[in-house]
Automatic annotation (TrEMBL):
Residues 1-27 form the signal peptide. This is Outer membrane lipoprotein. Keywords: Lipoprotein, Signal. It comes from Frateuria terrea. The keyword Lipoprotein applies.
């Protein structure tokens, strides 16, 4: 009888615990448009005309900022986004793109190496270079952007670990 009771409790507690952990994940920061592109930047770079004027929500690691006379351009190494639209920088990169922003962008607010998510419209492409290699950069006319802080990146992440055995972990 005790075993059945313990088994029943375990079966009902596990789904509840999983639901609580899932509920801790932050909601997406941008609402996806119905015609939003699900392709990655490297795919769009191969045939940019196919995706002209479509909406995207992309993110990644900031490579650099270039301030021009009437707008700024932020080069981004793209990474897949999680359910909260945070870039997953531990994944392999999925191409590069240029986020075109109106006006002046302070490079201290968009630091090289920082993680960013942008929402905007595809607006063609531009040939350029990555190192010595030729590269085609999709251009995103940015409507909204968000540079992630370390606290935001860790929010909602599961700090509970299950295992068998003895161990010591230092973080």
């Amino acid at each position: 009888m005790r075993i059945r009771l313990a088994s029943l409790m375990f079966r009902s507690l596990v789904p509840a615990a999983l639901l609580m952990l899932a509920a801790c994940a932050p909601a997406p920061i941008y609402k996806a448009a119905p015609d939003a592109v699900s392709a990655q930047p490297f795919q769009v770079a191969q045939s940019p005309e196919q995706f002209a004027s479509r909406q995207v929500i992309w993110g990644g690691r900031i490579v650099g900022v270039d301030n021009l006379a009437d707008h700024s351009e932020v080069e981004i190494l793209a990474y897949p986004l999680d359910k909260s639209q945070r870039p997953q920088a531990n994944d392999s990169g999925s191409g590069r793109f240029i986020a075109v922003m109106p006006g002046y962008v302070e490079s201290l607010d968009y630091p090289a190496g920082g993680l960013i998510t942008v929402s905007g419209q595809l607006n063609g492409s531009r040939a350029g270079k990555v190192g010595q290699a030729d590269y085609v950069f999709p251009l995103v006319q940015v409507n909204q952007s968000h540079v992630w802080t370390a606290d935001e990146l860790n929010k909602g992440k599961n700090n509970v670990h299950f295992g068998v055995g003895v161990g010591v972990g230092i973080r």
